[in-house]
Amino acid sequence: MMKKVGITVICLIVAAVAGYMIFNSLQEDDYYVKIVDEGVAIEEGPEQANHRNYETLGITENGESGTIEFMGMKKLRIGAYLKVKMRDDHAVTYEEVSESDVPADIKTELDNQ
């Protein structure tokens, strides 16, 4: 009897954690950005020596656009295309994507900024 209760509790916890993770991922939007400048260096300490703040145009696949602000963990290559995952106006992650991975209409708009 106790074994069944323990297994049920574990299953409920796993289901709750999975539901929370799915819910959070649904709250995130992917924005395509193009790095057009060197960003602003962060001078707070030696561990942040290469960190930079970037502010640039971001566009979703749905056509929503806005100014995206995020911190790069290093100096990013000018001209690089990134996919930045945003949640509640905060960057969660970013990854460099190839030029061919950026939808054509979004690429055109990013190239003309």
From TrEMBL:
InterPro entries membership: DUF1093 (IPR006542), YxeA-like_sf (IPR036166)
Domain of life assignment: Bacteria
Residues passing through the membrane, by range: none
Gene3D superfamilies found in the cross-reference section: 2.40.50.480
Protein name: YxeA family protein
